[in-house]
Design a protein that fits this description.
Layout (H helix, E strand, L loop, with lengths): L1 E6 L6 H15 L4 E8 H4 L8 E6 L5 H19 L3 E4 L12 E4 L8 H9 L3 H20 L2 E4 L2 H11 L4 E2 L6 H5 L7 H9 L4 E5 L9 H15 L4 E5 L15 H9 L6 E3 L8 H6 L3 E4 L8 H8 L4 E4 L2 H7 L3 E4 L4 H13 L1 H15 L4 H15 L3 H8 L1
Parallel strand pairs: 1-2, 1-4, 2-3, 4-5, 5-6, 6-7, 8-9, 8-11, 9-10, 11-12, 12-13
Helix pairs in contact: 1-16, 9-14, 12-15
Length: about 400
């Protein structure tokens, strides 16, 4: 039996939230593990009761740096009180003085992305530029503080290793197709109507809240080019967000993206579905025909696996992470080229054989990702660094 402590305070949206939603139930099924999970009070409401899992609520300060400060003060005592033998820090930042060996889960590719830093400077968002530099310094020092750092892909592990000078272990995140599709509750009528309105069009899907690094603008610029290439064919690009700053996590400013849509006269082609609950996403995937992602920074990209599992051909920006995750189930384009993106989408649309091959390859590729396998590898790793209880008692004493 091994006792783990997961610090999940940083999970509020995106990949961190997806991680906890999937990893925690699989940890609960293991008879050889007892886990304490620390969550923010709002997120705790999403989880029920699990065997072998204890939850702690935390009403700490908002904001990454204030939360980090509170963690450094309060977390060591919580870890000791839980009896944990290994701490898993799930939010890029480590505990500076952990009372037990520590595994750091690092998944934020912005700290190592030159493209992101150039982008925020070009947008004049110097507050975000400075914030990212500061957080990047903490994230790099965190790799030095952890016993082991784990990245969700081999490509990102190599990037982190080069950035930090430390060895980083790659353990793929997983996917559970049954859990992803088991909620049969239909979509809200308004969302269903928007999807039905495009049933005679070429239906593209991009799953993300609005941010800079997912490179929405390149995708938007590709739509008029695609319409011209396909001539009479209608196009609908469905987004799972609103192009309004306050409707998205973080401080990303969406007004320029919304203005670009109007400038391109693409209001009818670009459809803002708004945020879709995770349990309902499978309905949206199945209502669409091609999944697209123009992201220029990524560490894993869960929606790619969701799309492949739903049978959608994938058109993705040419990143090492995207090629690692999709392999031959995707076709790729220069990440900042709307022309190349439009050409790739048209290529899939105009070649039913290619679309079918990508779909079949995607179904096979998606089956290679397993949350059960991920948790098994993580627990095995934890067991290799656990300190015997006698040693822990000596260090505390």
């Amino acid at each position: 039996m091994i006792r783990l402590f997961i610090n999940g305070l940083a999970a509020s949206a995106g990949g961190g939230l997806t991680y906890l939603r999937n990893a925690v139930p699989h940890l609960a099924r293991r008879a050889d593990v007892e886990t304490t999970v620390l969550l923010g009070t709002d997120l705790r409401k999403e989880f029920g009761e699990f065997q072998n899992i204890s939850f702690l609520d935390f009403q700490g300060a908002n904001g990454a740096f204030r939360r980090f400060s509170c963690e450094q003060t309060d977390l060591p005592g919580l870890v000791r009180d839980s009896g944990a033998q290994v701490l898993i820090s799930a939010g890029n930042f480590a505990l500076w003085r952990s009372p037990v060996p520590q595994i750091l889960l690092s998944r934020n590719s912005l700290y190592t992305s030159g493209d992101f830093m150039r982008d925020v400077r070009a947008r004049g968002d110097y507050a975000m530029w400075a914030d990212t530099l500061a957080k990047g310094w903490v994230a790099r020092r965190s790799i030095y503080r952890a016993n082991v750092t784990v990245a969700p892909s081999a490509a990102f592990a190599a990037e982190l290793s080069q950035w930090s000078g430390r060895k980083v272990v790659a353990i793929h995140h997983g996917f559970d197709p049954d859990a992803f599709t088991n909620d049969a509750t239909p979509l809200p009528s308004q969302t269903a109507a928007l999807l039905k309105d495009g049933e005679n069009a070429l239906r593209l899907l991009f799953v993300s809240h609005y941010n800079y690094y997912r490179n929405f603008e390149t995708l938007f610029r590709a739509i008029p080019l695609l319409k011209k290439r396909l001539q009479v064919k209608q196009v609908k690009l469905y987004l799972t967000c609103q192009l309004k700053s306050l409707s998205n996590p973080g401080t990303y400013r969406a007004e320029s993206a919304a203005a670009l849509v109007k400038e391109l006269r693409a209001n009818n082609e670009i459809v803002e579905l708004g945020s879709i609950p995770y349990r309902s996403l499978h309905h949206v995937y199945r209502a669409c025909q091609i999944y697209v992602t123009p992201a220029y920074a990524e560490s894993f990209a869960h929606p790619l696996i969701e799309a492949m599992s739903s049978g959608l051909p994938v058109v993705a920006s040419d990143l090492p992470v995207h090629r690692e995750i999709c392999a031959d189930a995707g076709i790729y384009f220069d990440k900042f080229s709307p022309e190349a993106l439009a050409d790739r989408i048209a290529q899939v649309q105009e070649s039913p054989g290619l679309a079918e091959r990508l779909s079949h390859s995607g179904l096979r590729r998606a089956s290679a990702f397993s949350w059960s396998d991920h948790v098994t590898r993580l627990v095995t790793l934890a067991k290799t660094i656990v300190v015997p209880e006698s040693k822990v008692a000596e260090s505390v004493g």
